[in-house]
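Final report, closing paragraph on structural work. Over the funding period we assembled a curated collection of sequence-structure pairs, and we close with a single example.
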Amino acid sequence: VIVALQVEADETVLKEMQEYQNILLDDKATIEEKNDAYTSLQAINSSKSECEKIKQLITEKFKYDNFVKIENDSISIIIASKEHNQKIANQIIREVQSLYDKQRFITVKFE
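Its predicted structure, as stored:
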């Protein structure tokens, strides 16, 4: 399940990045369009690195294979485990929230 989610997310990100790169290379695109594409590419890269940081934290501290998806202020975490443990979910939420200054909407789901 985790691998399938990761592959799907990677494919989506690659498509988005390709679209923005095409805009950057397009001679007919305006400066504003190119700036927006560049900003979007930076946001995608930032989000990817944040996801990796959270994924690594959960793997190292809680020893669970996991998938992390960030959209705006929402962080969705899927844990590869048949056991649905509310205590561990709360610990993960607290640990992830501690990485941020402002409140994030964090969900943990076990699959």
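The longest strand covers residues 66-71. The radius of gyration is 17 Å. We thank the funder for supporting this effort.
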